Amino acid sequence: MSAPLLEIENLTVTFPTSRGPVDVVKGISFSLGRERLGIVGESGSGKSMTGRSILRLIRKPGRVAADRITFDGIDLLSQSERQMRELRGARISMVMQDPKFSLNPVMTIGEQIGEALLTHRKLPRSELKARVLSMLEAVRINEPERVANLYPHEVSGGMGQRVMIAMMLIPEPDLLIADEPTSALDVSVQAQVLDIIDDLVTGKGMGLILISHDLNLVSRYCDRILVMNSGEIVESCKASDLNKATHPYTKGLLAAMPRMDEERDELPVLDRSTWTTGAGT
Amino acid sequence: MIDWLLDDSPASRLQANMGRAWRVWTALLRNPLAVVGALIVLVLVVMAIFAPLIAPYSPVGQDLANRLMPPSAEHWMGTDELGRDIYSRVVYGARITLLIVTMVAVIAAPIGLVVGAVSGYFGGWVDRVLMGVTDIFLSMPKLILALAFVAALGPGIENAIIAIAITAWPVYARIARAETITFRDSEFISAVRLQGASATRVILRHVLPLCASSTIVRVTLDMAGIILTAAGLGFLGLGAQPPLPEWGAMISRGRNFILDQWWVATMPGFAIILVSLGFCFLGDGLRDVLDPKQGEKQ
Amino acid sequence: MKNAAIHLENLSISYGTTPVVFDVDFSVSEGESFALVGESGSGKSTILKAISGLAPDWSGRISVLGKPRGHKPDREFAKTCQMVFQDPYGSLHPRKTVDDCLAEPLAVHGIGGRDTRVKDMLDAVGLDQRFRFRFPHQLSGGQRQRVAIARALMLEPRVMLLDEPTSALDVSVQAEILNLLKKLRREQGLTYLMVTHNLPVVSFLCDRMAVMRHGRVVEIAEVDALKTGRLSDPYSRELYAASGGTLQPA
Predict the structure, then answer these.
(1) Alpha helices in chain C (DSSP H)
(2) Tell me: the pLDDT tens digits for C54-86?
(3) Cα B212 vs. chain centroid, distance in angstroms?
(4) How many independent structural domains does chain C possess?
(5) Domain contains A264
(6) Model ipTM?
(7) pLDDT exceeds cutoff 70 at C1
(8) Beta carbons of A215 and C199 less than 8 Å apart
(9) What pLDDT sits at residue B144?
(10) A215 touching C (Cβ < 8 Å)
């Protein structure tokens, strides 16, 4: 493994509630090279908050604290908001769950992708257009010329998500954070989209953080997996070793999933009392 | 007691509903303006109920020897052109004001709610007809419409109430319709329909409770407007008739002396402003509590 | 074969002027658990809506337990067939307690003994009595879905329409709800018609399935086909492979 691209030490994200502050991420540490890291967990596990805190996208009144968050030698915690804006998109990109809410409805797709590039670099018009079209081709859009002139509502969910990926990858960032990039999509489209991400990430030697609730999906597309539960990392393993997971939560999750060749009469249910103390019902 | 109210697992329907009411109440208390508004409204209610105890004089008792006296220890707000104690008249006026706003709310809000909910729930031609009627009423200026009705029905407090109610309901119908449309096709309404509930039942038991909170907020905010319209009618001599101590009518009478005996018109004016403000504050507070999607807080 | 619990013949459904389902025929026998599988826009949920009366623009024939269906929800039908919706957050009235929600169908049909019936039903779906007077916002997603299932069962229907009942839930909660659905079916001899895009869920809960695409049924298969990977239609094979199944020659 090369020198770490991203290092996180003791990251805590806190939100105030009517019953006092609640830590949604409780002092987690991990590092990432130019590899594909999966973060898996159920709703409320803090996985999305972890992804967002790297880009410092946690909204007030949430608070982020960490001993260290460094990206390629840059201390992200001490960057000004302006410096962060330059990093976001140019060097670290994020793909969100639903393309419908992330794309601007009144700009054509071509304009939006071009815009994503222009905010970080000045380019002549003709070259910009060529870059946009080749990027659309890279995300396997068949008629890039035609699609570039469409508006977001004129494309399907799968294509919208591919457009998002094109937009996020055109400035050639070093790290892509994909937060549930496919959970709004159909299974057959999911595979396509993830294959595209995978090709681009491995082809360019980028780092990838894939955040998802789907253990199988993450294990198929990542090198390493972190399993999160109520704000803590409970398991960290190689994707290929997922079946040898040791933590009862990971094992429970794996067992609770129905299989294609299901023979069990009843699915085992997580017994949360075995590893957490104050777990809710 | 508070533990009982805030219990996460209430043991009865009553406890569950009381708990909800308690949470709304405490949320309201956290908003200082809402508390001020609630206090003003409370004072108005207390004044109306205990007017004979609070007012030092009769509201209609004339004392021509003491006409147009400025405010003094004897007459806190002075006396009017017939020597009546203005303070006593303002206190008794609270009764009339409260009567008007409650009656208007009781008549207009349910009509508006039902028209709006029926219109939104059924859609189609029902919606077009009902909303057409609503729009006709909405397009006419409130005071003018009320004037026309009073002119037709004859001046008097009952007719003023009817006139204001007739001009007030279309707004509630609009709100209720908009709310109803947002959840008409939601799954919880579908679920009740699939259980065989009739349209009447769905509207009364499931749709209306959801429109109610935004309507309550709106009614409270409209109270100020209703008071002003009532005062306007009174001022024009079309509302409460003399010698009833209606605030608008009092201003109207005081107009003649406004330059030399300012208190005659100013005192009831203050009362109108204060009470209108109280309802506005309370309404804003209620909106934040009952209707978070319209307020600033999420 | 036993009596058909649900029988569809030449069913075509449209939303306004847009046709979404074309000439669907299938029949679900009593006590069977049948799945409608397909991707979004395949028309699978629309079929459930047509059967329940929520999508009134259809032609063809629908009969449930031998009785032809009308185009609207009706009281008699409500007692034989109920539906569970996908979104546990949208299917419960936000201002009504669990108790109100469960007692409502009894009130609609004038059935007495509401107190005991509600209590028994909470037990049946595995909800503690202390949840009885809670509002939906005080419940988790899984608990809400249990309430939704309980509500559907209050009228003791024999046929249940399940519209993606677990797709909005976490894996661990999904397992609990699937177990519950399986248990209820075994205990009460219910017939299930379930819409889902999740093939492993079908494998766990269903006996047969119909694969839908673009508003048509492309294949009807026994659930064993999922275990052996012997699906015949090219589209179902594609769907199967994308869901992580290992294909065998048909």
Answers:
(1) 44-52, 75-80, 98-108, 114-124, 141-153, 171-188, 199-205, 224-228, 234-242
(2) 988 999 999 999 899 988 888 889 999 999 998
(3) 15
(4) 1
(5) no
(6) 0.88
(7) no
(8) no
(9) 83
(10) yes
Confirm or reject contact between A260 and chain C (CB < 8 A). yes
- What span, in angstroms and rounded, lies between the C-alpha atoms of A191 and C79? 42
Task: Output the DSSP codes for C145-174.
Answer: HHHHHHHHHTT--SEEEEESTTTTS-HHHH
Residue B223, min C-alpha distance to chain C (Å): 26
Q: Number of folded domains in chain A?
A: 1
pLDDT single digits (tens) B107-149: 999 999 999 999 999 989 999 999 999 999 888 887 788 888 8
CA distance C174 to A267: 9
Confidence of residue B173 (pLDDT cuts 50, 70, 90): very high
| Position B254 confidence tier, pLDDT thresholds 50, 70, 90 | confident
Residue A4 CA to chain centroid, in angstroms?
18
> How many Cβ atoms sit within 10 Å of the Cβ of residue B254?
22
- Are A187 and C243 in contact (CB < 8 Å)? yes
Looking at residue B295, what is its pLDDT? 37
C-alpha B38, offset from chain centre: 13
Q: Is C243 on the interface with A (CB under 8 A)?
A: yes
Average pLDDT over residues B55-68: 80
Q: Give mean pLDDT, residues C43-48.
A: 91
Residue C171 lies in a domain: yes
What would the two tokens of residue B286 be? 């209620």
Angstrom distance (rounded) from CA C160 to CA C190? 7
- Residue A51 · residue A37 · CB < 8 Å: no
Nearest to C194 by CA among C88, C40, C36: C36
Q: At what angle do helices B157-184 and B208-235 cross, to 10 degrees?
A: 150
Q: What is the CATH number of the domain that holds C152?
A: 3.40.50.300
Question: Is there a domain that residue A203 lies in?
Answer: yes
Using 50, 70 and 90 to split pLDDT, how confident is the model at B291?
A: low
Report the pLDDT averaged over residues C234-244: 87
Cα separation, B288 vs B249, whole angstroms: 35
Inside any domain, residue C62: yes
Residues of chain B with CATH 1.10.3720.10: 35-290
* B269/B246 Cα distance (integer angstroms): 11
AA identity, residue C54: L
Query: Alpha carbon C109 to chain centroid distance?
Result: 22
Q: Does domain B35-290 have CATH number 1.10.3720.10?
A: yes
State yes or no: chains B and A have 3 or more CB pairs below 8 A: no
B95-99: long-range contacts (C-beta < 8 A, 24 or more apart)? B95/B48, B95/B51, B96/B157, B96/B240, B96/B244, B96/B245, B96/B246, B96/B247, B97/B44, B97/B48, B97/B227, B97/B230, B97/B246, B97/B247, B97/B275, B98/B44, B98/B45, B98/B48, B99/B157, B99/B161
Helix/strand/coil (H/E/C) assignment for every residue in C176-188: HHHHHHHHHHHHH
Contact at 8 Å (CB) between A96 and A193? no
Say yes or no for a CB contact (<8 Å) between C93 and B188: yes
DSSP B172-209: HHHHHHHHHHHHHTSHHHHHHHHTT--HHHIIIIIIHH
CA dihedral B54, B57, B60, B66 (to 10 degrees): -140
* Eight-class DSSP state of A88: B
Can you tell me whether residue A114 is helix, strand or coil? helix
Residue C247 lies in a domain: no
In the three-class reduction of DSSP (H, G, I as helix; E, B as strand; rest coil), residue C87 is classed as coil
* Min Cα separation C243/chain A (Å): 6
C42 domain-assigned = yes
Residues of chain B above pLDDT 70, percent: 97
Confidence at residue C219, expressed as pLDDT on a 0 to 100 scale: 93
- What domain range is C159 assigned to? 4-242
- Segments in chain B forming alpha helices (H): 2-6, 13-29, 32-49, 51-54, 86-122, 124-138, 142-153, 157-184, 187-194, 199-201, 208-235, 247-254, 263-290
Distance from CA of C48 to the nearest CA of A (A): 20
